């Protein structure tokens, strides 16, 4: 693999949860895999008052907590944390950012690093523009014989207008090629393998269209609530937090045409074409095509679980959705008439993300007439957990007669005992370091996705008659979500945590 150039990593929001749980463990893993530059340093920036020694101790504890024991070497861990430092700084202050430039120049000289810098915004989205402007004013956005790259977490904006303003502001300061809008779902191995599965196997692509596919279903479920992020989540909701970015990007990868090459723009151009082909959801149809819900208090395995409105930091009269399900179509030659169903929610029975291709049933219902309706063929791409691929089809049971059973052929990444599967952030941070934007969203992709979501946002804001359904924590969301299918014989798939248990349903 390509070895990154020497660089300085600057993390804004370094005292936050994302840095501790994901970023620092991922960067350490890259170091353990010998994929970090020969010379590098990491500066954490935050408002929480602490010394660099305290920051190093916290990050060391996080690495030990969130990585497997076999991945940790005390020698590498100590060497890695020695390269960490922490700076208490108000990122909204132009003067304070000016001080940061002095620190960056001093640290770069100390470690023998040229001017290469990666600025990671692990902050609330409203800070992105402020920090970028202040960095540019301090002269830290210019690329003169070195690179300066800016990584932004999702959501990138709160709606179409704000995303357009943010993009316009950034383009006035830096080049589009310096901007990396991160979507960690795109860093997952199974998502990337979707391209390989489709375009390197002659068996799948001829069937991947409206002639053979009945419907496509994408689920991203979380079994946790909002935890300690009530203030943030109540101003965001599932539509902004998950649908506009993660789910629509997965739709793009699932439905895209074969790219002309594996170059970043070739792949992103095809994803953009899919997003541009979405049939708009009219504002007056939102009540029928979009179901929103909010989890209520419940008992799960004997434990009392708090409802969303009783979570810390959440308004007691909140109408923020914790569950969204949408039905829509893609208006192009390949997918015309095929419904796409996407859903996401918190406090569902299990944590699972998967793409399900439901193939059309046989035109001659020979066995269905004798034995009742049988399950159709399904290709299941499991993104997380238990990453893998499952194909379900019907086979005859041994014995007389034609008793038919749905069986599965499966592949699990965990079965590759000699191959290490990197975390999503590990893969994406490495790509930022080597300057590969393939798995990052481009400005036009972001704005096109927001354009699709905009009528839903307007309808929810302007039409008080559109219901928000309560669903008990630990269930699969509002029962009304099944109404999207328009057929009582069809429901959402209820996936289990482990694909090996596909005969079973998760607890409801």
Concise account of the structure shown:
With 508 residues, the protein is of the alpha/beta class. The protein has helices at residues 17-32, 52-66, 74-81, 94-111, 128-137, 160-173, 189-199, 230-234, 237-255, 264-276, 286-289, 366-371, 424-434, 443-462, and strands at 7-12, 40-46, 84-88, 117-121, 148-152, 179-181, 213-221, 290-296, 298-300, 303-305, 323-329, 339-345, 352-359, 378-384, 388-396, 404-412, 469-472.
Structural notes for this entry:
- 33% of the residues lie in helices and 20% in strands.
- The chain is an alpha/beta fold.
- The chain has a 9-stranded mixed sheet. The protein has a 6-stranded parallel sheet with strand order 3-2-1-4-5-6.
- Helix 6 (160-173) runs antiparallel to helix 14 and helix 10 packs parallel to helix 14 (443-462).
- The radius of gyration is 24 Å and the shape is globular.
- Mean pLDDT is 89; it is low at 503-508.
Read across the widest sheet, the strand sequence of neighbours is 16-15-14-13-7-12-11-8-17
- Average pLDDT level: 89
How would you characterize the largest beta sheet? 9 strands, mixed
Helix content: 25-40%
Shape field:
globular
Find the count of extended strands (DSSP E, 2+ residues): 17
Highest CATH level, the class of the largest domain: Alpha Beta
Beta-strand percentage range: 15-25%
* Cα-based radius of gyration, to the nearest Å: 24 Å
Domain module tally: 2
The CATH H-level superfamily of the largest domain is: Dihydrodipicolinate Reductase, domain 2
Number of helices: 14
Do you know the CATH architecture of the largest domain?
Answer: 2-Layer Sandwich
Which structural class is indicated by helix and strand composition? alpha/beta
- First and last CA, distance: 45 Å
Low-confidence stretches: 503-508
As for the CATH topology of the largest domain, it is: Dihydrodipicolinate Reductase, domain 2
